[in-house]
Batch of 2 targets.
Target 1
Amino acid sequence: MIIDTHAHLDMEQFREDLPSVLARAMDAGIRYIITIGSDIGSSRAARDLAAAHEGVFFAAGFHPHDVKNATEADYAELKELLKDPKAVAVGEIGLDYHYDHSPRDTQREHFKRQLEIAREINKPVIIHSREAEADTMDIIASAGLPESGGTLHCFSGGPETAKRALEMGMCLSVGGTLTFNNSGALRDVIKTVPVEKLLLETDCPYLAPKPLRGKRNEPSYLKYVVETLAGLKGLSPEDVMRITSLNASLLFGICEPPKGGAIVYPIRDSLYLNITNRCTNACVFCVRNSTDFVKGHNLRIKTEPTAQEIISAMERADFTRYREVVFCGYGEPFLRLDVIKEVARAVKNRGVKVRINTNGHALLINGEKFLPELKGLVDAVSVSLNFPTEAEYKRYCRPKKQGAYNSLKEFVKQAKEYIPEVGVTALAMPGVDIEECRRIAEDELGVSLRVRKYDEVG
Ligand code: SF4
């Protein structure tokens, strides 16, 4: 499923063939579209389109180009439109200093006023900003966002703007411009933005993506943006669709996010197994503290699956698509050694590689002598060393067992005897001495180090 979070379906370019455009969108997996108002007339038209088409929602607001014409009567009508059950955002609103179709003072005044309306009704904002980054961000910072948040539509800003927006909890929306040959700087910025904060949009009929640049854009063309974003993020197109759709659902409340815990879930070309939500650490940065989701999958499980349930769930997966099966999920897999062994055996019978991502407390959990039981069942293990000192480990990982840091190192040393690939990871967290982590990994433990991004999980 894909959600196009920004389209202008009311525009004359779609007057002749909107039903065909929507049918092509459906065929391309675009399940929902938000059509956007830019003045009172187009906001009204957006509402009517949403009423007429099941998968279409709308945003209403006054674009900076048009604010010079917005009257008090228009504002009264805008507030009425925003009461519609299919009104999911206030937008598009903001500043445009490229064209200056409305005087800048007027733009700023109406931008603040519409932010205030959004805060009053707690609907997210869709913000247009062109050559006005500093003023846009300053106004958002001083006026305040609605609690439900917002997005910078058709993001074209630099790294500083992206950083400020993310710090304010905003999303960034990307579309056809991401695919253009001359958008290298934009792609560099988007590479640094967590995919959990990105939305997809066409801004159609404008900004058709690269192979169709110059043509009328339409929602079905989002597949080109999906492919570009997948390449940038090292994800599969399915990952990008799933994650950005969840992001849009959470921001705009368009559809229910996935419920229930996933036991078996794909990311890239790996199939992950979520076997427990328990852990012997309580890391301050643990994703479980802030969300139920990892790369678009809901991993919060109420009951732990049995080995047989996991094997049955795996049977439904297309193993030809996966390079490895990874015990990971939302907790420490070694808390369920018997399940690991039984499931790993089933995976090995299919000739697929088995990896375990672990906090390395396995010896403390299962005793000093269990490692030979993994021989032939597990091909790789990745251990979260995270920090170069025990003090930092205790401070940030908050282990529930005494001696966890040294036991982790011991586990790595011993695991090499029974598991072909053993490596450790460190967190690129501000202040962490990565070079010291590398020294410990290579010189002390005799394994390689992989550095993980602090704000990236899965
Ligand atoms: S070891 Fe992993 S699962 Fe456990 S608390 Fe830390 S981050 Fe969370």
Note: The first strand starts at residue 2 and ends at 7.
Target 2
Amino acid sequence: MQGVCREHDAPILPRGAGTSLSGETVNEAVVVDCSRHLTRIDAPDERARLIRAEPGAINEKVSEHAGRAGLVFGPDPSTHGYCTIGGNVGNNSCGMHSVQAAFEGDGARTSDNVHALEVLTYRGQRLRVSRGAIEGRAQTS
Ligand SMILES: Cc1cc2nc3c(=O)[nH]c(=O)nc-3n(C[C@H](O)[C@H](O)[C@H](O)COP(=O)(O)OP(=O)(O)OC[C@H]3O[C@@H](n4cnc5c(N)ncnc54)[C@H](O)[C@@H]3O)c2cc1C
């Protein structure tokens, strides 16, 4: 998809619930609503204290799944029943329980609570980024 957009010089704008406060999800662009289909949440890895979710997964649902392993995803904006993990990452969101997360983990912000991201760039590179590491390969479509 991003290959076609690139051919036509069309910008791409991913969005989750669109609850950002500064119009971040409004533009003349191909808008990708991740909350529609990119919603998978895997079972939590209790030992590693990690959970893997697609960007359109709802924050509250991710926390519900994580709760099965006694974990909580700390950042919980007031919009937690609607906002998505992709939007949390895009805005580096916090929340009421973020303060508690700061005591139990690395900090209060979403960036403090993300282990790794799989990223697709506009130029078609698929990257796995984590603290201190970037692995990637080019993708053609
Ligand atoms: C009433 C109200 C209360 C709020 N309370 C809080 C609060 O307590 N704490 C707080 O931190 N925020 C708060 N917010 C702001 C907002 O709800 C949060 O920032 C939330 O995390 C945004 O999630 P979203 O799914 O709506 O993201 P969106 O608004 O859809 O997107 C946010 C940004 O992330 C980008 N993005 C989304 N998905 C992707 C993706 N897959 N790949 C790349 N970029 C992506 C978008 O382009 C955009 O720039 C509040 C907002 C409202 C309206």
Note: DSSP finds five helices and five strands in the chain.
